[in-house]
């Protein structure tokens, strides 16, 4: 655990299904120290959250004095620490704090707020997000009247339509999970390696797959098996690692392409929020289809979103 | 192991990735006895096949005399007992035996033939089958000049175009594997139960999903997550087992519908070859789209295909 010299003004936490990340910040929003653990929502019962949190942030707390902790993500799920019920869209992202809840605590030094997720209950368009809304809030913290399309690639990729700083509609695609299942758990695992989109051959395989699946999305289940067949039949493929890389690039293109094929309207520039590698992959897919994009780093976004919530809490009288 | 009184004329074997099924037949093609084991290709090295076969059929052999054993499926794969190289389409199904190979044997009572699979090497349409070609041969054994579209639903569903008893083109869809991964290994496993298409509500959910995915195949990754969201939001769903069943029926409809959306031309009547439950499911999907189908039992088909090969072997001089 790194040491630090200044007492934090507040602590930001992004608590997901499988891990948590925490940051101690000063009152200018500068990160003093960061920490993490693998104790995500899936491995915790409600009574274990406070201890799991203190394992990461305990050293940052001074002996006396109250510290605000603002948490987004799965810790606020029904099966988490305490439920912060979904807010239904349309929702202004600066209003997220209105749905925040405080879990029961033993340690008198902590004041914890769990931020809510968003839900969409239009018939035929049921959807939920929990964690990503705070990254979107980070975008709005930087551009208060943002309107446009934002994409957060990942296990469950989110596409959100924003109007003047409010989320009006969103869509989740199981793209990352689908890729992982196919590449690691299906018959394709014998053929799929690790791709490298800096390699021109991988890039071409990726972009070709994007175009093909956009033209006939229903071919997805066939083109999946085609990866295995091409490998078995040595079809126009290099040997060794290069083969696994080429097939991985094609599988990635097919999977991301299927996601893009199902979206209503890709008007740009599209704001990609996430880690550098995955955002670059999506930017390449969008560029292949003639769409512009720009990037916002995922950690920067979630911190800005948590800070927006912290400022609202401390200014609203909710945090006396 | 059931007993039998008549000495078999020959033995038919369908040897897949995860199991083998064997039948002893008399010279009228009547099944005298059947057996099976879980020792499929994935669990065997080449030197173990003969012993695994004898574990199932050993009791059927008389002390003296040679018995023909005709085997289709993965035992003839490169990573199987001995490779029976794929025959490239177009292939007349009565000619399968021309690609049969004999593996090395220790037991002098056995004469074993491994039938080949089929491959398709047209650029962009690489595909393979191994085992299903013998079921298609069974269709042709019954209708020698069969022309039309045949579908063999399963883990890797096969669609074959036949003309006058020859396979001219085929397509594999990873539909069954995709369903299993999503229903049992993904985040959806928390929501998906077992459906029952005899239940009108399940049938409606299944057929609605078929129509929806046919109209916008690219929505597949979104509608997948929609199943989880609908469950979390209690969206127009019953409780308990009925909920899991309803969501399973929708997932099945989305998955089979995506397969159907990618096929070029569904001209009927389509011949479904497989087990009763899965064929009935496909028949329902096809009917929802206005396509006629008819059924051929999968075991009947594979036995008829193996018998066609056996007769060709014994009449051709290949089996002196």
Which helices and strands occur, and which strands form pairs?
2 copies of one chain form a homodimer.
Chain A lengths: L9 E6 L4 E6 L5 E7 L11 H9 L9 E7 L13 E2 L2 E2 L17 E5 L3 E3 L6 E3 L2 H11 L5 E5 L4 E7 L2 E8 L1 H11 L14 H16 L4 H13 L7 H22 L8 E5 L1 H13 L4 E5 H18 L5
Helix content of chain A: 25-40%
CATH architecture classification name of the largest domain in chain A: 2-Layer Sandwich
Radius of gyration of chain A, CA atoms, in whole angstroms: 21 Å
Which CATH first-tier class of the largest domain in chain A would you pick? Answer: Alpha Beta
How is the largest sheet of chain A built, in terms of strand order?
6-12-11-10-13-14
CATH topology of the largest domain in chain A: Nucleotidyltransferase, domain 5
Beta-strand fraction estimate of chain A = 15-25%
Taking the alpha carbons of the first and last residues of chain A, their distance comes to: 31 Å
Number of helices of chain A: 8
Largest sheet of chain A: 6 strands, mixed
Largest contact between chains = A-B, 49 and 49 residues
Number of DSSP-assigned strands of chain A: 14
Please write the string of helix (H) and strand (E) elements of chain A.
EEEHEEEEEEHEEEHHHHEHEH
Overall, the morphology of chain A is globular
What's the domain count of chain A?
A: 2
Quaternary organization: homodimer
Low-pLDDT stretches of chain A: none
Overall average residue pLDDT of chain A: 94
CATH-defined superfamily of the largest domain in chain A = 2-keto-3-deoxy-galactonokinase, C-terminal domain
Global structural class of chain A: alpha/beta
Keywords (chains A, B): Kinase, Transferase
Protein name (chains A, B): 2-keto-3-deoxy-galactonokinase
GO biological process, one term (chains A, B): D-galactonate catabolic process
InterPro entries (chains A, B): ATPase_NBD (IPR043129), DGOK (IPR007729), DGOK_C (IPR042257), DGOK_N (IPR042258)
């Amino acid at each position: 655990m790194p040491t630090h010299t200044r007492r934090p003004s507040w602590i930001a936490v992004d608590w997901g299904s499988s891990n948590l990340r925490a940051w101690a910040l000063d009152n200018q929003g500068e990160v003093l120290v960061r920490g993490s653990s693998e104790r995500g929502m899936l491995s915790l019962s409600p009574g274990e959250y406070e201890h799991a949190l203190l394992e990461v942030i305990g050293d940052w707390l001074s002996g006396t004095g109250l510290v605000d902790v603002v948490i987004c993500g799965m810790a606020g799920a029904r099966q988490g620490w305490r439920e912060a019920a979904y807010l239904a869209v349309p929702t202004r992202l600066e209003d997220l704090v209105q749905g925040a809840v405080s879990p029961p605590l033993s340690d008198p030094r902590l004041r914890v707020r769990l931020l809510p997720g968003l839900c969409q209950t239009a018939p035929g368009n049921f959807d939920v997000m929990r964690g990503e809304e705070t990254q979107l809030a980070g975008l709005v913290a930087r551009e208060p009247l943002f309107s446009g399309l934002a994409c957060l690639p990942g296990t469950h990729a989110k596409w959100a339509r924003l109007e003047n700083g409010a989320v009006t509609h969103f869509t989740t695609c199981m793209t990352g999970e689908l890729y992982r299942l196919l590449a690691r758990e299906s018959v394709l695992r014998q053929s799929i390696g690790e791709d490298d989109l800096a390699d021109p051959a991988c890039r071409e395989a990726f972009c070709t797959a994007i175009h093909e699946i956009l033209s006939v999305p229903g071919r997805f289940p066939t083109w999946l098996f085609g990866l295995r067949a091409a490998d078995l039949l040595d079809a126009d493929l290099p040997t060794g690692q290069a083969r696994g890389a080429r097939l991985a690039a094609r599988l990635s293109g097919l999977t991301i392409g299927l996601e893009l094929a199902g979206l209503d309207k890709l008007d740009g520039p599209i704001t990609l929020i996430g880690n550098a590698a995955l955002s670059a992959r999506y930017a390449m897919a969008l560029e292949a289809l003639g769409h512009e994009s720009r990037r916002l780093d995922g950690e920067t976004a979630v911190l800005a979103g948590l800070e927006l919530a912290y400022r609202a809490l401390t200014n609203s009288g909710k945090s006396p």
